[in-house]
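hi support,

uploading two proteins for the ticket. first:
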Amino acid sequence: MRLEDVIRAVKGMPQKDRDEAISIALAVTEHMPWVPNPGPQSDAYFSPADELFYGGQAGGGKSDLLIGLALTAHKNSLLLRRTNREVNGLVERLMSILGSRDGYNGQTGVWQYKDRRMELGGCQLETDKQKYKGRARDLYGFDELSDFTKSQYEFIIGWNRSTEPNQRCRVVAAGNPPTTAEGQWVVERWAAWLDQRHPNPAQPGELRWYTRNEKGEEIEVDGRGPHKVGGDLVFARSRTFIPAQLADNPDLKDTNYQASLDALPPELRAAYRDGNFLSGAVDDPFQLIPTAWVVAAQERWEPRPPMGVPMCAIGCDVAVAKDKFVLAPRYDGWFAPLVVIPGREVASAQLAAGKVIATRRDNAKVVVDVGGGWGADCYGHLLSNGIDSFAYMGVKATNQKLGQFTFTNVRTAALWSFREALDPSKPGGSAIALPPSNTLRADLCAPQYEVRRKGDGMVVVAESKEDVRARLGRSPDEGDAVVMAWYTGTKQHNISEGWGKRNTPPVVNRGRRYT
């Protein structure tokens, strides 16, 4: 029976019986410094999930859930906010609940309460995740999850364990819908609950089970297991999502907080007041490619390329041993599903070139990032096998000009060119169709830019790839591959009268032996 059902039953009792029930409840919980509110917060507190996301509307008691679990249900907890300054909010709330700062060491960030140990920390830089390496906790709590990078989250929770056999271990994350492209990984991880396009949607509180296959890709399985993956037997972890609502938080629902949420700009109201995970992203004023344009291109996408249009180019972001090796095949403005291969499966540049050749059709031009790693060697192997290839070096200076703008380097020019292709205000609208992928969307929407005056003209400066990687917590491989595929190769506008009126049919690539 749910806690709210018990409360409803108590309210229906005669006054004498009700007073007695309340007296018993107060006696039973007298030793507890914190008790969950009826409704979603109690559902989250008692959820059996190994990994829980409690999120949605602002004011739903998300931070209190993390603190309450650490105070009452766990022995060794780590509660995190993204920046060290934001940790002060957790300290102040704990002090409010306990009535003092007794037990708190501001130097170490550790709060000792009876036999409970709680560490309060930040993870501002991507590398700060290393501070928590190998330090086991039975509770990991993340406050405002979408402020963290995916790699920080996955790295830190890897030590969720306890030496006490009867101590439950779990990860609980709390937060509002992401308001930046960098936070969209949260929607992807809990897609069964948060993404209305998911083929098998889950109900709030429903358990789903996940593990990884031999390629390192996350897969959904039926139950804890064991499951045979490759030659190994592995166990899965359960995951769920429970929506948080202001109306269910008695500490705030009768205050003026609702009016404050109502006064937010429309896009922020969607995230914080309404808890809408699909429309909460707010573009930075200097975001190079608007999110709405990318979303529109993904909504235009269909599973098959346009009739009679050959493969025109393949963007190739080479990764060997680390990151992801990504191929982006393009059929004029239609992009095929990306070919994403873990870098560890590509042991050499020669093997990388072989993957490209196996994907290529119709004598498509291959655009290879030669800016680092194995890209230059892969490009060399392709040339030696007669493959029409283009060496793409993003940091190279360029004289390219689009309208009134010039660009600091090839990468900036390529991003701006793709931005213009996505622009819905151009005559006839945009013909770009991108496959559905939250990762691709985040990659394309992450770069920011500035415009500098140079003589009588203006030059566009895109944010460096290193800075984008630092904010995303990973390399924007998928976005880079798509932008490269558009940078060169045949396009509709440079074919007389278009694809349908060409005098010669598409040339089918017969393939050639790779050496």
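and the second one:
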Amino acid sequence: MEPSRTLAQTIALILAQNGVKRMFGVPGGGSSLDLIDAGAEHNIEFILCRTETSAALMAAVTGELTGVPGIVLTGIGPGAASAVNGIAYASLEKAPLIVFTDAHDIASPAPPHQIFDQQRLFQPISKAQKRLDPINSQSEFSALFHLALTEPPGPVHIDLSAKDARTAVKETYNAAPPKQSTVSSKTSLEDAMSAVRAARYPALIIGHQCRPTPRAAIANKLANALGGPIMTTYKAKGVISEDHKNYVGLFTGAALDGEVLSQADLIVFCGTDPVEMIGGEWLYDAPVCVLSETSGLEWPFKPKVEVGGALTDSAAALAQVETGVDWDGLKIQRKKEDRRVKLKYSDTNLRSPDEIINSVSEAAPQNARLTVDAGAHMFSAMSLWPARAPFDVLKSNGLSTMGYAVPAAIASWLEERERPVIAVTGDGGMLMCLSELSTAARLDANITVIVMNDAALSLIDIKQQRQQRSPAGVRYPRTDFATTARGMGLEAWTVGAQDPLEFALGEAIDTDGPTLLDVSVDPTGYLEQMMALRG
């Protein structure tokens, strides 16, 4: 007879059997402590973070990198509320995540202290909300675990009280993997194939759904078969190597895309989600063919044909179609170069973000991964960093949250410890997760943090300038990040506007463990960059 386990031990067993290696969080005094103990019995490491937001981001990034749901633990009330931003990231950016929150004992009176309806809080940003109890808990938790992975992936929320976590359960657990999606309609697939067959100037846009290895391989086959210009979203950067002869750059839904899309007679979206696009009017007359794991998404246009279901099937079918493409390869290459010229930071006597990104990419090891925070510096970082494989670059796109790059870098290093990580952030984003530098120091994580310091919320600043508003609410005194980082246990360097960058950069990258460079940057060219990109 199988020995009984507590609910917490049962959860940990299911996590371990499904490949979970670590959990993140800031524990409360309830069920989170039971889950930490139970996880340790199965060698599931608990990573103590400084904030619940960063913990949820680390867990979500882990889910994206591994294809196994990331796990985050929070305390009741304020702990749960503090995790919302990271859970919203997982929701909008389709990252598999399981959120455990401490809960009060349902059999006891619910005092108002720290208690509110946590399930209702998470309802808009999670696929399911459930209070687990020992009755039928194994099958319920198994279903929730696999729901987090079912297309589209996303977060699920579980309330768990300490009393229930410590109660024995006897149900036998049988793993039930999620059902695989199939192509939605033979007719729609045939219509898509006909559209490709008729096209002479097709353009291909590849999105985040294509990052897993089997889908990335099929996306490359489709790209080669179509023979036209290829663009990727921010999340899909690297799915098509930037060395590919037909790769022209990043798709954001902004004005710069028109130089390619306005000349297409068919636009094919492969694994793209509307959340990856900047909101705005769709300006192109060419018919659109959508291939997506998830059908019925809210596009800013009416697709000519939409094929929902397994991309490995639909994209493979389109890749077999014989085409008569008339694109000129040299013209495609010129489009790539023209985009780079337009996004180039204007000449300045001070240090530009272009200079910083180019210097970092030259100094970084070949296998280095880049994590990028939201902010004006992302224009240079995303356009200039060379990516040749999926997940070479990690960025929040659907939520576009600040305070992302450092937690993402820590999660990346934990998952692939032989792969160095470089986190590029602005001063505003760094201040939002500054305490996680101490987490990186405690873990001795091999990450290098580059802070582009201009003492402003520069992306908002340039929007303010564009609207001809007075400069209020976006600038502040300069922070000495290097001194702060040293106080948290990192090696750190300050690089002024006229100081040489290469020596400090080389030292930082060559140093084992976490390092930080506080680099002064000239913000005067950001507005011109944004105008070139977004119009």
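thanks. also noticed: The first strand starts at residue 5 and ends at 6.
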